Request: fold
Amino acid sequence: MGSPLDVSPELAERMINAAAGAAADYYRDLPGRPVIAQTSAAAVRAQLPRELPRTPVRFDRLIRLFTDAIAPNSRHNGHPRFFGYIASPGSAAAATGELLSAVMNANVTSWRSSPSATELEHIVTGWFKQFLGLPESAQGVLVSGGSIANFAALAAARSQAMPQVAAEGIPPDTRLRIYVSQEGHFSIDKAAALLGIGNASVVHVPVDSDFRIRLDILARQIDADVASGCTPMAIVGNAGSTATGAIDPLHSLADIAAHRRIWFHVDGAYGGFAALSPNLRDEFNGIGRADSVTLDAHKWLFSSMGAACVLYRDPAAAQAAFAHDADYTRPIGFAHDESFAFWDYSPELSRPARALPIFFHFSHAGADAIAAAIDANVRCARHFAATASSIATIEMLAPVALSVFCFRYRPRGFAGDLDVLNQRIMAELQRSGFAYLSNARINGKFALRGCVLSYRTTERDMDILMREVMRIGADLCKT
Ligand SMILES: Cc1ncc(COP(=O)(O)O)c(C=O)c1O
Reply:
């Protein structure tokens, strides 16, 4: 008997068809499922086989395990009323791209390793450059997420500020500074720590009433830092901040950065793809002037998890940070486009064909439908805010810039702690399975925070959410 690893093409087809059936059931059941199952770690563990399988397990049992235990015990990011964090629903086209990518199991280190996947990656990152207004000469690379994209961009910025850093490290007397608004994502601080700059060197610039960076304070702070001997390394602009969705004035940030010769990075992990929408494009003016941009395909492109992009205006700046030569990787006998290696542009060497799911997803839907879905998400968030304005017990805590909405329940005459009440509302709502909100702190207040990021969400879902929050809030106030 042959190895169970080496299945025949016919058996592979049956296995994939069985998985396709489970996928169709998952999609069918999704809107009717609770957003998240009420369970416990012990209960989930009890449903999963824990013993190391010495002998083969029948494949139909594995599919049944998915259907009966794995899928139901998941949080369903594709549910129309999942509003937590910033999570894409994924798409069937992206999922099939993931499957076929895994079938080839290409290792897209370089052109030599996977010519078609490399060219596909150039194509999709080329589309991103195009809609953001970056030059054709810019270089894009797909990475696992926005945190790694921000890290890679800041590594390139560090090399630009100190060309010898890759070889010699940061000289002891150098005090680098990274500027980002108080709304910046923590991955910026994390990158600073990992790059040896120290997260104490990240200057969190105050924001205005729309949660956008204060340009006057930024400019004064940079000048004061330079006067005291610091080296400004990068200015990071938010193109959709995590807590409120605020978009910094990117043109003005580009001006400040250009005037002082500082690297300008735009963190568009959440909001960047909204620039695909002709109705929203103007909000992002200036993004094409960035030295680097982060985009998360697993956020507002609605593609599947594990795919982000970092774009570098000047590919040489990224190469200064990442390029390495080793005998075991050097492309021998290749030149020009065929000698291209992704390891010159990010910390990764082995990497999957991330472009294939994105290519399938983008091509299957088309840019217009993606833009229309983004517009619809923004309309849903605005609809919620408009409804809130006529409800005395709902207080919006931040303007709706994109599809994030932050609010709290504030009953008239309530003498208790509003933070505690709203924390209990969030926990109760999550438990109910009807809808899912996460939280943020806005001007010191605990906020219920939602982010509309699903092409399945409608204004009716926003009304259901409002009704549930009010019902839970009123019930909690009675007890
Ligand atoms: C603005 C922003 N930047 C970066 C990140 C990090 O992205 P990832 O979760 O893909 O690492 C996030 C995640 O929510 C984000 O909202």
About this structure: The chain has three domains: 9-76, 100-364, 368-478.
